[in-house]
Amino acid sequence: MTMQKLLCLFILMLSVCYFAICSDKALLLSHAQETNTKAEYLTLDDAVEIAMNNNPLIKSKKHNIGIYAGRVKQAGLLPNPEIEFFTQETPTNNIGFDQSQNSVALLQKLETGGKRKLRVKAAEKEKKVIEMDLQTTIADITAKVKKSFFNVLTKQEELKFAEETLEIAKSLMSISSQRFEIGDIARIDVLKAEIELSNAKMRVQNAERKYLNSAKMLQTVMGVPDIDLNNLFPISTADTPSLNLDNLNNLLLNNHPALKARKKVVDLSVIKITEAKRMAIPDINATIGYKRLSATDINTIQAGIAFPLPIFNRNQGKIIEARALSHKAKDDVEVVRNQLLLQLSNAFSLYTSTREQVRFFTNTIIPQAEESLKIARQGYKQGEFDYLEVLDAQRTLANTRISYLKILNELFSSITDIEKFVGVKISDIK
């Protein structure tokens, strides 16, 4: 092989190695960027998933399902047989089994009237009710997580606005000091600027406190008190669809787990009535045994059945109780149904009003307040306006922003409630 060929081969190997290294480096950078992106933000879906795995109330409800699974198993078990050893007519002068009559018997309780089957069916219905109760709890916790998540975002914005207001107050304080030094304004205007600066600092402190409280609430609902909430992924409420209350009502009646649970209780109450009636049918106690007559040296077989006569106790009281509970269960369905429809109607009303208000604030009120403050600051700097006009414009903007955040929070709260009631994301509602 010539030197030229060796050189070409060496260059080719270097190129391959360089390409491999660059490719690996690109993959590592891509993975690192993906990891950093995941670690940088906590999304709303992430928060809900964390709550599903860590919220103690959900954990407790899940254990309840295990309890009722055990009850279903226990309901299907047969009664244990009994074994009986018996000796009689044993002479007192010759105690032993030689002169006595000895017997051994097996006793088995036989349940009649399909009681065991009904018992299993009732236990399975109870388990279904508990499963629906778990779904109701999951829906409630999900709504709490979403509201708390958005509340943290709102308090972050409120803190940001308070800090911006503080910067404005500092700027106005600086302008007031400069104008006072050149004799353009009186000392009282400087004092007003100092007072407003102090108020702005207190607003920042209050906003920080509210933010910390809201963050602690979210951590508590998620079940992870130490999770970092500094970087929550923003939630947009810009594209909120127009909704129809009748459609929402139909979705609620078909999907809400609390209503399904009440209907399961009605089914269970019907089974309980049948079970109470069947309990009046007496169970049979069957016996089969062996008896040896020692005196005559004879082996015998014994068999028999025993059952109570349903003369006085025919389970009348339990039947009356079961029927009353069945009527109550049907009434409870209507109670829950009416309560849920009322709550959904309130959430829909709040959604409809705040949806329009948010748009009006975004498109009109906030831009006007910002423009008003801008004009007032420029005019004050040039001596066209006095400090009270600037202060009024500044406070108007601050109050406008706070009002906007409050309405925005109410809008998201209504969205969350609607999603909880109908069991569907608002973006998927037709």
Describe this protein's structure.
The chain has 9 helices and 4 strands, in the order H-H-H-E-E-H-H-H-H-E-E-H-H. The protein has 430 residues and is an alpha+beta fold. It has a domain at 145-280 and 334-428: Outer membrane efflux proteins (OEP) (Up-down Bundle). A hairpin with a 4-residue loop joins strand 3 (284-293) and strand 4. The longest helix is centred in the middle third of the chain and has 67 residues, at 115-181. The relative contact order is 0.11.
Which features characterize this protein?
9 helices; disordered N terminus; 430 residues; 8% strand; four-stranded antiparallel β-sheet; alpha+beta; single chain; Outer membrane efflux proteins (OEP)
Question: Layout of SSEs?
Answer:
Elements: H1 3-40, H2 44-54, H3 56-75, E1 82-88, E2 101-110, H4 115-181, H5 187-222, H6 245-255, H7 257-278, E3 284-293, E4 298-306, H8 316-381, H9 387-422
Antiparallel strand pairs: 1-2, 2-3, 3-4
Helix pairs in contact: 2-4, 3-4, 4-5, 4-7, 4-9, 6-8, 7-8, 8-9
Shape: elongated
Radius of gyration: 39 Å
As residue ranges, the low-confidence spans are 1-38
The count of β-strands is 4
Q: Helicity range of the residues?
A: over 70%
CATH topology of the domain at 145-280 and 334-428: Outer membrane efflux proteins (OEP)
Coarse structural class: alpha+beta
Number of helices: 9
Question: Terminal Cα separation, in Å?
Answer: 75 Å
Percentage of residues in strands:
5-15%
Report the sheet with the most strands, covering strand number, pairing sense and barrel closure: 4 strands, antiparallel
The CATH superfamily of the domain at 145-280 and 334-428 is: Outer membrane efflux proteins (OEP)
